[in-house]
Design goal:
The protein has about 250 residues and is of the alpha/beta class. Strands 7-6-5-4-3-2-1-8 form an eight-stranded parallel beta sheet. The chain is built from nine helices and eight strands. Helix 5 links the parallel strand 4 and strand 5. The relative contact order is 0.16.
Length: about 250
């Protein structure tokens, strides 16, 4: 199992590097978020041992449950083997839709939330962050494809939303996120990724945002290479990474 996951990871990193080479980008500028939503906890432990420290979950309950189990595992290893015996603490990313009544459950674990799409949700994250004395990195999710089945703010409203979020305490707006329509042809996603990049550049030129506003979260197993070519700095990959290791999806 370890060998298969290691081989998959090497193959994905090679594909990331090749996609970057096509457009003259440094692969170091692309962060791989391992989507663990359908893998077993023992596979997540193995992923940590292989250096995959950015982990993504789309369901709040699963994130809290898995993060708690991993932290318990790390604590046991630390007690038995000392500081060198446990893998580093992972960076948990909430990549799915987040309801306001679930903020208290997810915020103790998630360092980054990719799916902020309303002012009220941002306010709740800010308020809860103040209670925990922590700052949360957030992406504003944009529904570039205008699909009714997808969450996200409209393209025309993204700049306005960011304008009102950036002044909130305990929040750091680091970029934009989108999901392209599902398609067997990765090239079908290109116009949506290109549109998000254009919107990102427009917002950055129009508003006085800090250097932390530097990221585009876009691209999954079926289209991450196209996303990278269009400027993605974070790609969310599950199926391609965990294929043959255990049942997985992204």
């Amino acid at each position: 199992m370890r060998r298969k996951l290691s081989d998959n990871l090497r193959h994905i990193r090679d594909r990331i590097a090749a996609a970057c080479a096509k457009v003259g980008r440094d692969p170091a500028g692309v962060r791989l978020i391992a989507v663990t939503k359908t893998v077993e906890v023992n596979v997540i432990r193995l992923a940590l041992e292989l250096g995959l420290l950015d982990l993504g979950e789309s369901r709040v309950q699963e994130l809290a449950k898995r993060a708690g189990m991993i932290e318990e595992y790390r604590s046991r290893r630390l007690l038995v083997e000392g500081p060198g015996g446990a893998p580093p603490s992972p960076n948990w990313h909430m990549i799915g839709h987040l309801q306001r009544n679930k903020v208290k459950l997810v915020l103790p674990w998630a360092r980054t939330i990719h799916s902020v799409d309303s002012l009220r949700l941002a306010e709740d994250i800010s308020t809860q962050g103040a209670r925990l004395n922590r700052t949360t990195d957030i992406f504003v999710q944009v529904n570039v494809s205008e699909e009714r089945t997808k969450h996200g703010v409209a393209v025309a409203a993204a700049s306005y939303l960011i304008e009102h979020i950036v002044s909130m305490p305990n929040l750091r707006v680091i970029g934009l996120m989108t999901m392209a329509p599902l398609s067997e042809n990765p090239e079908d996603a290109r116009p949506y990724f290109a549109r998000l990049r254009e919107l990102f550049e427009d917002i950055r030129s129009e508003r006085s945002l800090g250097p932390e506003f530097a990221h585009l979260s876009m691209g999954m197993s079926n289209d991450f290479e196209v996303a990278i070519q269009e400027g993605a700095t974070m790609v969310r990959i599950g199926t391609a990474l965990f294929d043959g290791v255990t049942e997985a999806g992204s």
